[in-house]
Amino acid sequence: MLETSGLADPGNLAPLFWVDDGLGSSIYLDGIVTLVDAKNILLSLDEPATPETVGNEHEHEGPHLTTAHLQISHADVVIINKCDVVTLEELERVRKRVKAINGLAKMHETRFGQIPQLEGVLLDLHAYDRVDAMPDMEAKGHSHLDPNISTLTLHVPLLQPPEREKLEFWLRSLLWESILPSPSTSTTKQAQPNDQAFEIHRVKGQIPMSDGSSIMIQGVRDIFEMIEQGGDGEMEKGDRKGKIVLIGKGLVGLPFQESLMGALG
């Protein structure tokens, strides 16, 4: 377990532990846990951006992200601490705000600093070697709660093997170049100064293939993997549908679903 400072950006640290299986390292990325102070988190989310976040290499024009935004958006687990010192109404506002920023993370609440258990809460998360049930959030999502960052779900049909390469190219455009391919043509359109730019902090997906197998997608910032998994043979192919979940800044209002379908078409 690595405990970072309260000002650390997980997006810069996670790739350091993203080790290729072939290297045989005993150190691996199990998951990112963010501890949230229920009493002060809303103030932290609404505070002006610090020089560290303003100067971040991923920064672009638009609403600034606080350190709290970055830490919540990258989390696989969010621990809401000090629930005993806030009212039920205040706690509910915290829950909704955290969920609006990161719809993927599992949330646990503590009172008097006591967590229910270590395993599955802080340890043995397996957040990067499996994909649990993913939320279904539309593009407009919860942006009214937090306009800075949001979670977006994209729906993916059953893919033929040749379409895997098309999906990978689409992900590379998003994560490596911050380019959203045009939904109407095979060309790509890079965000110009007057366009709405975006940045992806976390991506996770489960994509069914026509041969009965599936592809698991895991990514943090510009590092991602597409891992092939065997099928169970129990689900009817016509009923198998996939999802890709994006967490990031500037997602609202851009045609991500249309772009994805255009890339696969």
Task: Describe what you observe in this structure.
It is a single chain. With 265 residues, the protein is α+β, with helices and mostly antiparallel strands. The chain has helices at residues 10-13, 41-46, 51-54, 67-73, 88-101, 163-177, 256-264; strands spanning 33-37, 77-81, 106-109, 150-156, 179-181, 188-190, 199-208, 214-220, 223-229, 242-249. The strands form 3 sheets. A 5-stranded antiparallel beta sheet has the order 4-10-7-8-9, with helices on one face. β7 and β8 form a beta hairpin. It is globular and about 55 Å long. 32% of the residues are buried.
How would you describe the shape? globular
* Number of E-type strands: 10
- The strand line-up of the biggest sheet is 4-10-7-8-9
The rounded distance between the terminal residues' Cα atoms is 43 Å
- List the helices and strands in order: HEHHHEHEEHEEEEEEH
Which percent bin holds the helix content? 10-25%
User: Could you give a short account of the major beta sheet?
Assistant: 5 strands, antiparallel
- Helix-strand makeup class: alpha+beta
Rg over alpha carbons: 19 Å
